[in-house]
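Hi everyone, sorry if this is the wrong subforum. Our group has a chain we'd like a structural model of before ordering constructs, and none of us has done structure prediction before. Sequence below.
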Amino acid sequence: MTREIPRSTLPGIPMLLALLLAMLLTFAALLAAAAASAVGAVVLLALLGFVEFFLLFGLFMVQPNNAVVLQLFGRYVGTTRDEGLRWANPFFSKRPVSLRVRNFESNKLKVNELEGSPIEIASVVVWQVVDSAEALFQVDDYENFVHVQSESALRQMATTYPYDLHDEVKIALRSHSKEISEHLQKEIQERLAQAGVKVVEARISHLAYAPEIANAMLRRQQANAVIAARTRIVEGAVSMVELALAQLSQRGVIDLDEERKAAMVSNLLVVLCSDNDAQPVVNTGSLYG
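Answer:
Right subforum, don't worry. Here is the predicted structure as tokens:
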């Protein structure tokens, strides 16, 4: 694998001033040699002036948080990260690579989650180049590589978790955003390591059931919510009935036989578990008559 090799370059402003001064002196000497009809000196000075002008093509600019990859006739010779105007061998080809943090949002993918239900899912991936040589020479187009591999990792991750949490599953797409984001980031990083790219963050930006089953899943969620609420109400009602019977027995308010306890329990559960307000009924007779 081609790894990044740091390459030092010369400061550009001193080189620019030196070359301009050298060209000025060469031009003055050329004029003097031409006035003296020194043909050999004129040719040498003209050649020197051409060389000095050619050396100007070694100047290049490095933007902040950027790198410039240097190649000599197709061979990688190093990378410079020194900011500002720099100078290197004019025969070097110079390719800038941004090291800044970038992000993109993937397309909405339709995949089947762990339990087979079709869902729509999308993600936001924050990434940056950390090795310029790998980014340019290990893959053909590292930006497109990042996009394609990120969507592939998202699709793979979505198939390993269910959409909703239930008793048999400890992690779900909808309820555990932190764990899901960490898993997604790891999946993407494994695919992008060879491209010299670091994944800073990855998180789900869109998650929903596919339109064709959205209504059915909504009804199922509502039914689960109703069942959970009813279960909680019944548990609370039973506890309250137990407390009421215990308090009556401890304080000696009334001595209830099993039949009357059953009737009281029935009445209390109806009142506590009913969706409607209780309607009091005054009993003027006996429970047995």
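For your construct planning: Helices lie at 12-35, 39-55, 132-137, 142-158, 177-192, 211-251, 258-273. The mean pLDDT is 84.
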